[in-house]
Structure formats: structure tokens, C-alpha cells
Amino acid sequence: MEVSLQELNKTQYPIPAELQNNVAITSLSKIYNWGRRNSMWPMLFGLACCAIEMIATASSRFDFSRFGMEVMRATPRQSDLMIVSGTVTKKMVVPIVRLYNQMPEPKYVLAMGACASGGGPFKEGYNVVSGIDKYLPVDVYVPGCPPTPQALLFGLIALQRKIDGQSLTTADDVPWYGVGPSEPTPVPILGPDIIDPRQMDMIRRMAESKAAKDAISLPDGRALPAVKTAAAVVPVAKKATAAAAPVAAAAPVAAPADDKRAAALARKAARAAKTGGAPAETVAVEDAAPAAAAAPVVTAAAPAAVAPAVPADGAKPWEEADEIREQRKAAALARKAARASKRDEGK
Amino acid sequence: MVMTTPEELNVDLKATSVEETVSHLTQRFPGIVSADTREGYGGVIVAKDKLVDIARYVRDVLGFDYLSSATPVDYLGEGNHSTDHLEMVYHAYRTSGGKALVFKAQTDRESAEIPSLIHVWKGADFQEREAWDLYGIRFPGHPSLRRILMWDGFAGHPMRKDWKEAYYEEDHKPFTSRWPGGHVHRAEEKSIFGHNVRYPADIDLSRLTDVSESTLYSGFGMGVDVTRMVDHHGVETNELMVNMGPHHPSTHGVFRMMLRIDGETVLDLDPVMGYLHRNHEKIGERNTYLHNIPFTDRLDYISSMGNNHGYVLAVEQLLALGAKYNPPTYRAEVLRVLMVELTRIVNHLWAIGFWLNDLGAFFTPVLYFIQERERILDFFEAVAGSRMMCNYMRFGGVFADVPERIHSVTNLINDRMRDFDTMQFLTEMINERIPRTIDELDAYLTQSEIVRVRSEGVGIISREDAIGYSTAGPLLRGSGVAYDVRRADPYSIYPELDFDVAVETSGDMYARYMVRLREMRESVRILKQLLPRLEYTKGQPVNDNNMAYSGKVPVGESYGRVENGKGELGFYIVSAGEKKSTANPWRYHVRAPSFINLTPLGLMSRGSKVADVVSILGSIDIVLGETDR
């Protein structure tokens, strides 16, 4: 029996009697998400106190195998979910980022407890990273110190809800449904302090201004490395620098309206710049009409936000937090106003 | 007038009191040893170039054979002492019991150097490495003085008083307002990087190779990963370098071991730690004394009540130097011991359960122990408000009395609310449920052939090594040393309680298992004695001590220690400053049993199989929060 696809897609299509009660029709996203949400395998990976509560959640009283999560895998290659259960230290964040990069997509991160979410009680410590979201994209934050097993279960259910809302068609919310492989998160380097490769430029400028201000010539008369040299030595940095430069280059690139791939890649770059710890407050404002599918307009809302990192007069930039804060506040207010006006237009 | 020394009176020098020992030392070594006369301090100060000789004398002649703690203090800009200097403080005990002999060696801050005591007490190994790492004191004579908690290449020695971190706000808490202009600011906003980082002015970004592990490998005596060798059958094999951890399911957290192996046999093992170093001591020196109680919960997070107890004992020693301090009421002491003994049971159940995981009984037995632990945690939650981080004890008392009734919000059978009378709940738990669990454990495991074959004769540490390496807890008692702080240097109401110290002599993993098993039974025995005490002290105050919440602590030093589940947990606290009393500790050091018990891990693992290393580590029972602090 030859049926054209168009015919079959019509809701009025008569289903043969022998197939009735045997066929369920749903969207592909829905069935795909249903499968994924109910077999979310966490990585067997404990950091600190929260890991004990995670074990308690896994054991018989709370038992998260009820949600399809009982298979804790010790290898990142087989796990879907990284529960960051405890204080992330600078020494440990290097292996954590490596583990995350090794996880196959789709992958999720749950920050369990105060420390993983923002540093918690140990935030001020010299070896403590103030939250894993400084390095990895976090899907669910579970507050508590430590969160009770009930709270963790709630967080896991929240993650399932989040998965339910994801769609195969919109590549923007879910990087792995997009085009091409995702960029791995650059692995931090343990130098005199931890070095985030994405911030290499800022570190260099800070060092330069610091040296200029205090008129420190380096002990052996060595000049500070030029941008190009350093980037060549550290390839990760080069890539990160390109991503971190707030996609100013992306705006002039006029993507043809019909080239969806180019548009998606540009959006992806914008997203990477936004989530990748880029210092600038970049706002990716997408064209309101989806049919047009034009290249995204990327505006640097606060171009000054990069500059205050190293003011021209060489004043101590790290002490000018107030100024930066004011600018961020202004940028946030501008964004809010823009959103409000957009909403009004919609009405 | 002629002073007679104990020696002249033919007194046994190994049995003299600490005060007599101090006066003996100062007279025997004039000009080298002097009594520490600072207000609130005790012990002696030893000239640093004679430190090793004095330490040998202290160990061999005076009988202080157990080095409990070795820790530095940075006296920079401290009002009581004229000069800025660094000081190593050593606490030595006799394994026959008694108080500590404290001796100190001082050095200047610029070229800080103190002779290593590693050849007197091997247990000084990791502690001296920590002192080098965090304070920058060099120890000539130490065979591998490298960083232990931070990584190689880290800029500076962070525990020094003049080292400020990126998120530094003020020297002491409570801080001034964080929202002075009407809007709150966060620490990230003060750093242009938005991260908790600071870089030296001369940071060299052209040479960004990660050197954090280079000395680790070279210190291991290896330049390359693989060495060719020929085994005794004439077959050419390779000697391999294997890293276990920091992400490894068997290392009980973020612990890492570097193994040099020949086939399945371990030739050498080096523990690598610091992956959970969250700067407990640096933060603790900024906190007020009271602030630190919840932080101690997060040290050994399996047994938070025990940590609380050690810390409040240390501070109470200092408070007792002042005028206005009342010791805790009897009921407060009973409650403390009740909580601590329940904690010990939780700890040992957890330790045995996870040790069985390491032996291969993956998660089947431990589920039964966790079930029992949950019931005890229900009680903690009802009393202190939190399952794990109890934050229960206060200076001169406890946070609150036990409630009349316990509402257990979740239950094992269904989700209905359960409501118990507290004493009934406790009585049932102590008399029936816990003993039943222990009996069950005993019946299934103690004579199990697999357990015995895997654990007997494996991971042996001799009696002499156990003492020399400063091990504590089941590790020490499993090697035939009947040393339990509750008996050797009693605190709280332990002198009046009837219990035995569990000792085994074979020094292997099985002995440690048996010690834990018997200690749980002894804990139940103690708990049974506490029930009537709880009944007849009902109604006594537990926390109306005037020092419980207002914490100005008189100047001086103190070392409070308790027998925690993992071993001897000590807190060394210095209260120093220009005034008579201080609000923040000058020095706050944790003598962590999990940390020091790892010192002989290499010794115990050498020659065993790789699979045994996992369970040897499990039988030591470490918790990384305490190891790395």
C-alpha cells in the first residue's frame, strides 16, 4: 500500500483496525526525552561531605533508582550526569573539567550543595573555587549544606523536568542538538594560582599594568610576552581568546538568510562567548521573527566592561570594583528596559 | 640550696609527671632547653640546633614515645612577643598514658629552618611537609620535602600571616557591613577575573607548562614512566607507574595514590593529597571561636559530633584560665558522651561497610549499615536540627537538650509521620536495634572465609612502627598498643564509665576490623550506662553557661584531643594578642587522624597486590575532609 508522507501526516488518516490500540503517536522529542530522563546515569564521583548524602540518597531509604538513576558509573564515558557533590578546590577542578570533557553528550551537571554552587562556607579559602559554574555549565543547583537526600531527589526531579522541556528542533537551548561537535571546556592550568585559559588575555593585561604601575621590571630583564607568542605556546588559550572576544566579528558577517547552518554556528559562538566566562557583557539579541532566520545581531552592550579591567592610566584595576559594578548594573538595567519594551511591543 | 633532679633521686624518668619532666629538662640542658614562661603557655623551648638530640632524649630516656602533633605557628605582629618568628610546636605523649610534653623550636621568618625530626619520629613526615607547604619552613634532613596540600609552583606559603588570598576582606570576623552603600557586594566583584585568584606581578605567561606534578614524579625516584626489568624467571617485564585517583571509586573521596608496580605487586606507593584542601585552618584563624564549631563538623563529616567535642574541649581549656568560666553541667557532659558514642558507632559501621566494598562485597552489606545509620541520624536531626552537620556542642555545654518527642519525617516503610517518645526511641535503639545490627554483622562477616582470607596477614604494621608513625585509633590498637585517649588521657565523664579498650595484636586488616567491631560493642556498653544518667539528670540546664555564646578567650595555648572514630583528633589553639583575651584564635590547628594515619600507607602496601592496596586504604578508614582540611 503506497501512502504519501503528506497523506500519512494528516490527522484524519484512517488507521487500520488491526493497528488500533497498538500504535501511539507522539513527537520524537517526547519519546526521546522520556527515554533519557528515565535512564539518567550519574557518575560515581564524590568530592566532600555532600557525597555522603548522595550515597544515602542512593541507598535503600531514599533510593533514587526509583527514577532510573541507580546505575552509578565510575567512568565518565558511561555517565550522563555529573553530580558535583562538595567543595571544588583549585587542585581538583582540573580533573573535574577533564572528566566533564570526557563525558559523552547529552550531559548534565548538578551542583549539589552550597560549595559546588558558590563556594559555600569555604568560599574565601585560597584553594577553593567559588562554584563549579565558574568552569562548567550547571543545569540544576541544589542548596543546602549538605542538602538532605530529599532535596537532592527534588533536584534530580527538577533535572528530569528540564529534560522534558528540551526539544530536538531548537538547537539553541541544547548545545548537543546543534551543529557540529561542542567545544571542550578548556582545562585550567595550575600555575602560581589557577589559570583559566579563557582569561589569559586579562591576566596578561593585569600583569602588564601591574608592572607598569609599580615600575617593576621583571627580575631577569625579560619582557612580558607578546600576545601572539603566548597564544602560540598555549593553543588552548588561542581558541579561548577567539571565543572570548565578544563575537564582535560575528556581527559584520552577513549570513545569508537561507543558510541555517551558518546562523546556528554564529548563535553557538555567541552562546559560547556568553557562557564561557567572557568578561564583557555581551547580549545576543535574536531577531524576533523566527521565519526570517537572519544572522543574530550581537551587540556589545557595555563595551567599556572590558576596558575597566585595565584602565589606561594604570590605576589598580582590581580595586575599582565599584566602577565595574556600576557599569554592570547599568548594563543590566538597559537589558531589562529592552526586554520590557519588547514585551510591550508584543502586546 | 641544691636542687635535686629526679635523676639524682633515682626516680624512674619514664614515670615522672610532666611538670617534673620540664624542670628536669631545663636543669639537665641549661642554655639549650628553657621553660616556656609566656602567659598561658606550657612546656619547654628548645634551641633549634639541638632539637634532634633533645627529641631523642625525650623519646628514649623520658619515655615520650608518641609524637601526637607537630605544627607551626606564625608570630608576626603579635603583641605579646617582642620579635616576629616562626615556631614549631611538638606534642609528645607516652603510650602508657598521661599528659603531653610540649616542646617548641623557634626560627626567624626569612630563612626559616628547623631540623627535621623524621628520624626520631617517622610520623613527623607529612606534618613537616605540611609545615613547608603552608608556612615555608625548611626541614634539613627531611628526605623528600615537597608540597603536600597545594601544588608545586603555587605562589607563596598561604598560612603565613602576611599572605592574603584573593577574596581577602579583613583580618577578623565579624566583618564590617558588606552593603555599606545600600547594595550588597560579593567577593567575586572585587576581582577583575571574577574568580578566587591572584597572580604575582611577574607572572610568566610564556611558560605555561603545568609543573604541579614534576617534583612528585622525580621525588618518586623515577624520571620515566616505564622501567625495563627482568623478573626471577628471566622474563622481561616492565615496572609501571599507576595513578589511582583522585577520581577513583575506591579511594573514598578525592584521594590519590601513586603506585609503582611490577605486575600485580606494589613496589612503592606515595599518597598524594590536597584535592579537598579547603583552607580550614586559614579560615578558622579569621573566624571567632564560636564560628569554628560548624566548620569542625565538616572535617570528618561522618562523625561531626566527635569533632565538635574535640574543639570545645580545647577552647574550654583556655576558658578555664579565665575567671568567669563554669565547666559544663553533668547533664551536658552526659549528652556529649551520648552523641559522641552514637557517632562512633556510625563511623565504624560506615568504615566496615566501605571496607567490605573495597574487598569486593560491593554495596550489599553497606546498605544494611546505612539503614542503621539513618536511624541514628534521625535522632541527631531531632536534637540538633541537621542530619550530618550537627553543630551541637557549645563552650561549657551543648546547644539544646534532647526534645521530648522525636518526629521522624521519613521512615523506612512508608511516608507517614512517625512520632516517638525520645527516651523510648533511644532505649529501643541502644538496647535492641544497634546490638542486633552488630550481631548480624558479626555473624555474617567475622568468620566469613572470604573476609578472613583477604584480610588476615595483609597490610601489616608492627607495634613499633604504629607508634613511630604516630598512627591513631583502630590502626594503633590493631597493632597491640592499648592506647585510647578516653583512657590514656581521660576527658569528660569517661573516668566513671565502665568500658574496655579494644586491642588486637596481629596488626593486619582483620585486626583493625575486629577492633572496630569490639569498639562498637563497647560503645553500646557505654550508651547503656548513659540511659539511667539521662533519666536522673532530666531537667538540669545544658547551655546556660555564660561562655556558651560570648567568646572572649583568655590568652594562652591549649591542645584538646578526643578519641574520635578514626583516631586521636586534636585541636591546637593559640589565643594571643595584646589584650588579656581575644575573640579570634591566633593559631587554629587540627591534628587530623586521617591525615597522619596515611603516613605509613606506603609501608603497609609495599609488597602487597594492587587489589589489596584498595582494601588497606579502606581499613585505615580515612575521610578526605579531615585529611586535607
Count up the helices of chain A: 11
Strand order of the largest sheet of chain A: 1-2-3
Overall 3D geometry of chain A?
globular
Mean of residue pLDDT values of chain A: 71
Number of strands of chain B: 18
Can you offer a commentary on this structure?
The complex is a heterodimer of chains A (about 350) and B (about 625). Chain A has 11 helices and 7 strands. Chain A has helices at about 5-10, 30-35, 50-60, 90-100, 115-120, 150-165, 200-215, 225-235, 235-245, 260-275, 320-345; strands at about 80-85, 110, 140, 190, 195, 280-285, 295-300. Residues about 215-260 and about 275-320 of chain A have low confidence and may be disordered. With about 625 residues, chain B is an alpha+beta fold. Chain B folds into 2 domains: about 5-135, Beta Polymerase, domain 2; about 280-629, Cytochrome-c3 Hydrogenase, chain B. Chain B is about 35% helix and about 15% strand. Chain B has a 5-stranded mixed β-sheet, with helices on one face. In chain B, strands 6-7-8-9 form a 4-stranded antiparallel β-sheet. A 3-stranded antiparallel β-sheet of chain B has the order 15-16-18. At the A-B interface, helix 3, helix 4, strand 4, strand 5 and helix 7 of A face helix 5 and helix 9 of B.
Task: Give a nutshell description of this structure.
The complex is a heterodimer of chains A (347) and B (629). By secondary structure, chain A is mainly alpha-helical.
Give short descriptive properties of this protein.
heterodimer, A: 347 residues, mainly alpha, 3-stranded parallel β-sheet, two-stranded antiparallel ribbon, 11 helices, 7 strands, 38% helix, 7% strand, globular, B: 629 residues, alpha+beta, Beta Polymerase, domain 2, Cytochrome-c3 Hydrogenase, chain B, 2 domains, 5-stranded mixed β-sheet, 4-stranded antiparallel β-sheet, 18 strands
